[in-house]
Amino acid sequence: MKKRQAGTMKQSTKNEKKMGRPIGFDKEAALDAAMKAFWERGYEGTSIAHLSEVTGLNPPSIYAAFGDKMNLFRLAAKRYAEGPAQYQAKALREPTLRGVITALFRNTVEFLSDPAHPSGCMTLTGAMAGGVEAESAKDFMAEIRRQNESALRARLEQARKSGELAADVNTLDFARYLSALLGGLTIQATNGISRAAMKRIADVAVRQLGY
Q: 84-208: which CATH architecture?
């Protein structure tokens, strides 16, 4: 009986090694790799086969570690929002409204032109287009964008209370306007324009805004 149990346990271990995660599996590194894949290719353009290639995990291991593709996308998008995309949050911490506006455009240009990561903004390009399969991904990214817009509006409200922004300014409209301008820079980045060209566009926007 003991021999049979030992044999069963040995076989089970072999199966786990074959189907499970590799020895030394680094979940954080795998999630970073998945984030960059979704960032570069979008939700529908990123297949399980490609995720397997970039993470070094076979498909069963991906499902075991992260759940299905949609759940992995959510985790990757959350990692993006809490990591690379913090350039906006950093700008909102500037002490003056002028500082906030100029930092928003400056940080966005620096982020979009950084060769260390895929071009564009994952919250905009990760799931903007696609069929029925991508609906949940699009909804999830839209919610992240709404949260960013809400944070921007809250900072504008603060500026209005301090007298830096006129009392009659609609902060929701202003936040959406700024988001539209910053989103336009993302489109230009995906078109492949240079950092210098993006900086000139940002300078025009800041001047037109009166800052």
A: Orthogonal Bundle (1.10)
